[in-house]
Amino acid sequence: MTLPGASVIGALATARKAAQLYPPTHPAHRAALDALVSAVRDADGHAPLALNLHQGRLYHGSTVIPEDLPGSQGIANAFEARHIESLAFSPGFGLTDATGLVEVLSLRPSQTLDVTQELTDRGVTAVTVGLLEDETEEDRKDRDRRRALDRALYQQLLRTLRVLVSRLTEEPRAGLGAAAAAVTEIVGRLAEDPSAILALAWMRESDNELLSHSVNVAVYSVNLGRALGLPDEGLASLGLSALLHDVGKTAFDIHDPAQAESIASLHSQVGADMLSRADHDDSAPMLVAYEHHMYADGSGVPPRAEGYIAHPFSRMVAIADRYENLTNPHESDHALTPDQAVMQVLREAGTRLDPLFARLFSGALGVFPVGCMVRLSDDSVGVVCRAGSEMFAPVVRRSYDARGIEVDEYDEVDIGAECLDIIEVVDPNSLNVRIAEKL
Ligand SMILES: [Fe+2]
Ligand SMILES: [Fe+2]
């Protein structure tokens, strides 16, 4: 049975889209409004229709509207952005109501937007709105607390890795338990809030490039493993392997240009040797250290016999490693923006990189990954903070308004739901912005 609320949501989403694409006099615009009126009238035949927003999900009465219902996420985001908690439709809902409602749901959200007044001004009488409470001081504190905890987790992973690296060089049977535990925490948080963990990859410390690189490769690898549907145990093993993939480099002086060539050709073998001596049952970290530069087209190091197939984790880490190196190369002038790096990974799918994993990796990060700085069609500039209602339209945290003035308030916009577009990707260096401070 179709939910009566579902058809109204579909019609509302279509009417918003039509209002964005066509002038009010256009037949498609008018047809979409007529369809909305019919959907509401049909639904009213069942029971008084009310749509409610609760914790980001839409409900019809107490029935949850499936998130994959076309248009539902966009409508939920449009409600949230305008602080709408509920919409109740009264009998007699007509064209004036539909027109006014769609217009108001397309107004740019702002602190001063008064939805009730805007509906009244448009002659809407058959719709009653309930408004969400403003974000309280407590909510803001909660968000800041969570952010601080995530940053502490990243720092802890860096510290654990630093200690582990020195123990691996000094003790013949060093255990990997502390690092494994820290990775397990990251895996848990990634399941809860992938965007928050992907944002951590921007917290890199320039005083220890190798550690930051390793932690970031672990974050990206686990994100890929999650997209692949690996169970938690597999993700933990993959994350630990990724964290330690370059451990062999610690046996060299990475700042000595004379050693660069040996590091490139030998660190896989050296790392595998170090990990073969560690006190750890799982052989994946050792294998990944050994194989992560064996590329899909047969190139790379160490040399291997024809037909040798690297472990799936090694092929996954190779992709995360490539992406990390593209976005954070040794010479920062050559850094690609995240969207360019995703495209480059896709270009190398099937040659240097495993084709299936490379596509999955790009899909999991999105066309505009977390941390990508973008200019929107309203001329404001912000940083992508998570996936949005549409693939090409993520949620962006505004950093600068259309006049170029820095935005102080916490202003997140789902650009798909707000009918905005990404006009260009901006190099944060050109604006002297540190992405880590914006996420
Ligand atoms: Fe490496
Ligand atoms: Fe690496």
Give the topology string: H per helix, E per strand: HHEEEHEHHEHHHHHHHHHHEEEEEH
What share of residues is helical?
A: 40-55%
Major sheet attributes: 5 strands, antiparallel
The Rg value, from CA coordinates, equals: 25 Å
Features:
439 residues, alpha+beta, five-stranded antiparallel sheet, 16 helices, 10 strands, elongated, binds fe (ii) ion
Written account of the structure:
- This protein has 439 residues and is an alpha+beta fold.
- 50% of the residues lie in helices and 12% in strands.
- The protein contains 16 helices and 10 strands.
- The strands form 2 sheets. It has a 5-stranded antiparallel beta sheet. Strands 9-8-7-6-10 form a 5-stranded antiparallel beta sheet.
- The protein starts with a helix and ends with a helix.
- 43% of the residues are buried.
- The chain binds fe (ii) ion (2 copies).
Give me a quick take on this structure.
This protein has 439 residues and is α+β, with helices and mostly antiparallel strands. It has 16 helices and ten strands.
Topology:
Elements: H1 4-21, H2 27-44, E1 49-54, E2 57-60, E3 63-64, H3 72-81, E4 84-89, H4 95-105, H5 115-121, E5 127-131, H6 137-170, H7 177-192, H8 194-200, H9 209-228, H10 232-243, H11 260-276, H12 284-291, H13 312-327, H14 338-347, H15 355-365, E6 373-376, E7 381-390, E8 393-400, E9 412-414, E10 422-425, H16 435-438
Antiparallel strand pairs: 1-2, 1-4, 2-3, 4-5, 6-7, 6-10, 7-8, 8-9
The structure holds fe (ii) ion (2 copies).
